[in-house]
Amino acid sequence: MSNLSSFVKRIRDIMRNDAGINGDAQRIEQMAWLLFLKVYDTKETDWEIDDDDYESIIPDECRWRNWAADDKSGKAMTGDTLLAFVNNTLLPTLKTLTVTPDTPIKKIHCSYHI
């Protein structure tokens, strides 16, 4: 638990230096989204292994693996590019996702009709 606490504190300290974030409430919301996306991406990896027809409910460009993971190719987003993506694409897109009690945690595409 202390590792998570130190991680959150480090992230909070970094975010305090960002002029585009207004207060702890906004920082907490953004940290929650980021932690959720990382954990959800790991879970999606399991679902993809178990089901060939798995389809994410998160748009491709906003899936953790497509913007946050460093594949060591030298093309990972950093600095102002990353900040612009998170502020202008990621968080606004996630904010507008329509999620209801009927939204499946994972979407399954069926290639056949009954």
Task: Give me the secondary-structure topology.
Blueprint: H1 2-16, H2 23-50, E1 54-55, H3 64-67, H4 79-95, E2 107-108
Antiparallel strand pairs: 1-2
Key features of this structure:
mainly alpha, 114 residues, disordered C terminus, two-stranded antiparallel sheet
Distance separating the two termini: 48 Å
Number of strands: 2
Task: Quote the beta fraction.
Answer: under 5%
| SS summary, helix count | 4
Care to describe what's here?
A two-stranded antiparallel sheet has the order 1-2. It has helices spanning 2-16, 23-50, 64-67, 79-95, and strands spanning 54-55, 107-108. It is globular, with a radius of gyration of 16 Å. By secondary structure, it is mainly alpha-helical.
